[in-house]
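== Sequence entry ==
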Amino acid sequence: MSRKVFISFLGITNYDPIIYLPSGGNLMDYQPIRFVQEATIQTYCKDFRASDKILIFTTQSALKNWHDGEHYSNKSKKNEWHEGLKTRLEKLNLSVPCIHVDILEGKEAKDIWKNFETIFQQLESRDELIFDITHSFRSIPMLNMVLMNYAKLLKEVSVSGIYYGAFEAKTMIEEKEVAPIWDVSAFSKIQDWTNNANIFLKTGNAKSLVAQIATEPYHQLKNYLLNFSQYNLVNRGMDIYRGTDMTELSQRLGSPIEDSDPAMSALKPILEKIKTEFDNYQNNSVYNGFVSVKWCIQNGLFQQAATLLEEFITTFMMLEVGESVEDIQNKDKRSTVSAALTLTNDAKFEYVRVPERYEIDGKRITAQSVEDKTKFRMWQQAILPAIRAYRYKKELGNLAASIKQSIRNDMAHAGFNKDARSYAALEESLKKRYNETKKLIFKIKAIRLPELLP
């Protein structure tokens, strides 16, 4: 089980006593205190075990608030409020150790980095962190946010709460002076949404974004987003052609869920940015393949992009000469159309061989297989003239051939050839072929495929 760690910073102010009241807390359960940490620890560390830890970071100047002392100029209060935070926490009879850790004043840049290192070293792998940022000073607020991201990556920590005792927002409740404790955990959530969305938009991998969505109000997007990512990562052509998950994503992302959580409000622009990636998809459209090619190129998925581009040119050709959606899934028909499209010498085209009746042996060659091959050869003999007569056959064929020869084969064989191309050369060639496809599709069908981002 992961360890829970409470982190707070102690300032140098001679704090005045007030009731710090957490959201949803019962006023009767809280008394006036000088240190907000008493209230946040009392509320959010109830289930801490001996193996967990409470860390209070203090500068040399702040030690006066850690140890007992007389800090009030108002002598009438000094006996009542002279106890330091150390004593106050001891009186809570916690089962978890409360440790104070020295940090530097932060007057120089090198001090900030030293403090960063000091705090980071206190953390262990997979810690669950709770922050009280009420008395953060100077560079600490920025340091906290950077530290959270840094530790999430290197130590796989999670942040379960960030709290701020808003003394400046104090008010009178039942004739008592009360300051609310605000839950600002949304800051960490927004960090995660931003990072995970950026990973998805830059790499095409939705795994981390899906993991976060699974526990949020947008959990219904999880399967659609994961499916989209996987379709492109492993080239699921028919799923891309159908476009169901992508059009559903576009629709759902265009209707954001209303939620009072401020993190959800801040999330809307992020979701809108993600949505733009799905706006060009349609239900049951060959053009979805080219939209995915663009996506793969922009996310560095070059082998997927090359495969999808060549295969969807074949698919486009099949549909243009009247083949059905069921036909585009037929491996043998696809091979025939691909060969007919890319061969410049029709004499080199090889028709399927139909066995003679006398060759039937009942095992490898049956009467049914002879009939099937006969029908398929007849289909070949009918489809080849249609492809040859197609007005843009030569342009499509040259494009498909160039993709296969200059890109797809190179990557499929891991560059084990004399003319192996570099990453940059493959990227440039893919972009060029996509743009050529884009122009040709517009020329043939007046359909505008999306632009490649620079």
Notes: The chain has a mean pLDDT of 89. The longest helix spans residues 367-389. The chain has three domains: 4-184, 185-281, 286-454. The first strand starts at residue 4 and ends at 10.
